[in-house]
Amino acid sequence: MNGDSSECIILNPDDFEDTMNLLRTQYINRNPLCRASRETIEDTYKEPLPTYVKKYLASGVSLGVRDSKTKMLVGVFLNSEYNLEDTSSEPSTNMEELGTVFRVLILLYPSPEVFREIKANRVLEMSILCVHEDYGGQGLARRLTE
């Protein structure tokens, strides 16, 4: 696939159905973690995945690739952005979210000032990278992550 037959786009909430269709047909059955945990296509209709996908699409930092001829969504890189200055006065009770925060804190433990040292005010959460198997080997994943 050359640059003329595909187009990179910034995904938005209008891309929800196409994104979920790509995840259901390509990601769930091919991702090793999904396969190991015996996740099924039916599981993608249940929370929390639809809510997370909507959040990623609304973030403005998720990318997709559409086939120029068919307009089919053939690749996604779902991301979210966090502002380090935003704080919550209410503690989170979502254990999955707390586990993610804990894993990040462990990584930062040797240098807790790492974000201040590099003057970062936002963090990019990179969540899901998926390319349709019929479009494999054409550099789409590389284009999405560059």
From TrEMBL:
- Enumerate the InterPro entries for this protein: Acyl_CoA_acyltransferase
Q: Any idea which GO molecular function terms this record carries?
A: N-acetyltransferase activity
Protein name according to UniProt: Uncharacterized protein
Annotated source species: Cherax quadricarinatus
